[in-house]
Amino acid sequence: MKRLTFLVAVIFFIGSGTIVAQDINGSKVPAVVKTAFAKKYAEVKKIGWEIEKGNYEANWGGK
User: Fold this and answer.
1) Is the separation of the CB atoms in 44 and 60 below 8 Å?
2) CB 23 within 8 A of CB 29
3) For the chain: N or C, fewer Cβ within 10 A?
4) What Rg value do the Cα atoms of the chain yield, rounded?
């Protein structure tokens, strides 16, 4: 049982390390990224920004 618990913990920590995204302030997002997003999703006002794998990611309304 201890071995199974250890194995599950190791798999969890390895998996969680690969799914890390960095939250950033909207003021640090390049204008070209914000403009492209605004053209496609003009109705969205409250946006959370992240950098994941070198790409900017916008989050809003659970999406």
Assistant:
1) yes
2) no
3) N
4) 17
**Three-state SS annotation for the chain:** CHHHHHHHHHHHHHHHHCCCCEEECHHHCCHHHHHHHHHHCCCCCCCEEEEECCEEEEECCCC
What does the block give as tokens for 40? 């496609």
Place of tokens 């999703």: 41
Note the pLDDT tens digit of each residue in 1-60.
777 676 666 666 565 555 566 888 888 999 999 999 999 999 998 899 999 888 999 998
In terms of pTM, does the model score above 0.70? no
